[in-house]
Automatic annotation (TrEMBL):
The keyword Repressor does not apply. It comes from Variovorax rhizosphaerae. PANTHER family: ABC TRANSPORTER SUBSTRATE-BINDING PROTEIN. The keyword Signal applies. This is BMP family protein. InterPro entries: ABC-Purine-Binding (IPR052910), Peripla_BP_I (IPR028082), PnrA-like (IPR003760), TAT_signal (IPR006311). It comes from the Bacteria. Pfam families: Bmp (PF02608). Gene3D superfamilies: 3.40.50.2300.
Length: 335
């Protein structure tokens, strides 16, 4: 082989490798878009998944990635869909593995040259599976402080999906915040055992309101509807729905997935993606979470409560106050 032909062959081989871009340790060719796939067990509009979808759509709009996604994937079908995306050349796969941990981790092992960023209660799995979670207990605590100052009956209702750590820690933080501003408050807690069943959540909320709750913690869709119909107040979770419930939703603890998504995309493009825990990037200091503006309730929340909340927020951001991560199942305290 001539020196010129050998140089051409080597150059072609290097270009082919760089175009793949999914080999750990190798960067994408300059200007190439990362191929990203989302695998979600619930609809795009469900609170938690909507934050993933929003962040990845934003990266797509910036021209950084090619993005495909599947919603409403059943647990039984999750592994198949993951494999199809991996086989199809997607370099980063994002989704939630909470109910399909074993299957998802098996796929990651079978595709070591593909990067995985999955919502999980477990640990990262070398070399290519990173985990994340909505560690938004800090703004949840702040919304609890507001709820404690807004209830007149001293009874707060809380409706969650499943009593898993990802839900429990937010509810416990909310309850601790409410107790800080109102030691007399009592809680009614229930779980609907579904991630997306607004009618069931609504019925659970109605039952609590009938027993005196005048502020509802809306961990699931459907709770704010019940509060609106009964003329009660609600506290939002993960997303801000005050625009849809201007006279009902007082405040919300927002989750921003952008810090996690942007980090994963950057590292994947640079060939530096490794197995790590992205949990910290959901915290307030990384802008991964925040307290939503009070908006329509800006003049309705007592001034002394607003002052306390702002002071606590400053202490959290300044490292002077740490919201406890309590993953235990919250219990009702209402008599």
């Amino acid at each position: 082989m001539t020196a010129r032909r050998e140089l051409i062959v080597r150059s072609a081989a290097i270009a082919a490798v760089l175009s793949v871009g999914s080999l750990p340790g190798l960067a994408l060719a300059q200007g190439a878009k990362l191929k990203v796939a989302g695998v979600y067990t619930v609809p795009f509009e469900q609170q938690w998944v909507s934050r993933l979808h929003k962040a990845l759509k934003a990266a797509e709009a910036r021209g950084e990635i090619e993005y495909k996604a599947s919603e409403n994937v059943t647990n039984a079908d999750y592994e198949r869909v993951m494999r199809e995306y991996a086989t199809g050349g997607n370099q980063l796969i994002v989704g939630e593995a909470f109910a399909v941990e074993a299957a998802a981790r098996k796929v990651a092992k079978d595709f070591p040259k593909t990067y995985f960023l999955l919502g999980s209660s477990g640990k990262p799995q070398a070399p290519n599976l990173s985990v994340f979670d909505n560690f938004i207990q800090e703004p949840a605590y702040l919304t609890g402080m507001i709820a404690g100052g807004m209830t007149k009956s001293n009874k707060i209702g809380m409706v969650g999906g499943f009593p898993i750590p990802e839900v429990n820690r937010l509810m416990n933080a909310f309850m601790a915040g409410a107790k800080e501003t109102n030691p007399k408050v009592e809680f009614s807690v229930s779980f609907i055992n579904s991630w997306f069943d607004p009618p069931k959540a609504k019925e659970a909320a109605f039952a609590m309101i009938d027993k005196g709750a005048d502020v509802m913690y809306a961990e699931r869709f459907g709770v704010s509807d019940a509060a609106k119909e009964k003329g009660k107040l609600a506290i939002g979770n993960v997303i801000d729905t005050q625009a849809q419930y201007p006279d009902t939703v007082v405040a919300s603890a927002l989750w921003n997935f952008e810090p996690s998504a942007d980090r994963a995309i950057k590292l994947a493009k640079e060939g530096k993606f490794v197995a790590e825990d992205y949990g910290p990037y959901s915290m307030m200091k990384h802008k991964g979470s925040e307290l939503a503006p009070l908006g329509t309730f800006a003049s309705k929340v007592p001034a002394d409560i607003v002052t306390k909340v702002k002071a606590k927020e400053a202490d959290i951001l300044g490292g002077k106050f740490t919201v406890k991560v309590d993953d235990s199942q919250p219990k009702s305290t209402a008599k």
